[in-house]
Design a protein that fits this description.
2 helices
């Protein structure tokens, strides 16, 4: 979905949300929401999660501009220079909502989907149960 959202033929993005400061934000092209926060590093690595059982959403938003602005943002990011303009927000919350006047394109676990707004997300701690073998037994 990324090329259609921030690629050279992408149109304006309408994804207002309430940020960690309690204010409404507009103009962000990318919103990444995960179960538990990802650690993103400014050294070319995509990111990683330390845990999956904290019971919070990890939220990252990026406003990288278009064409030359986006290229400068991406080049700086992959070169290890974090953007200091406020175009990158990262926080944790138990709930998050994305509003829009249009359907919202999204990538969910590698699948391209489109959702009717608003998209409301919340953490459900303990909703996924995982069975693991007892010590000394191997999983088959």
């Amino acid at each position: 979905m990324l090329p259609t959202i921030i690629g050279p033929k992408a149109g304006p993005v309408d994804l207002p949300f309430t940020g960690p400061d309690g204010r409404e934000h507009r103009g962000f092209q990318l919103i990444h929401v995960s179960n538990d926060p990802y650690h993103f590093t400014a050294d070319g690595r995509l990111g990683w999660r330390e845990r999956l059982d904290l019971g919070v959403l990890g939220i990252v938003t990026a406003r990288a501009g278009k064409r030359d602005d986006f290229l400068a943002f991406a080049t700086g990011w992959w070169g290890g220079q974090r953007d200091r303009s406020g175009a990158w927000l990262q926080w944790e919350a138990s709930e998050f909502e994305v509003r829009s006047g249009d359907p919202i394109p999204a990538g969910v676990d590698g699948e391209a989907l489109v959702f009717d707004p608003p998209v409301q997300l919340r953490s459900l701690p303990g909703a996924l149960r995982v069975r693991v073998p007892t010590t000394g037994q191997s999983a088959s």
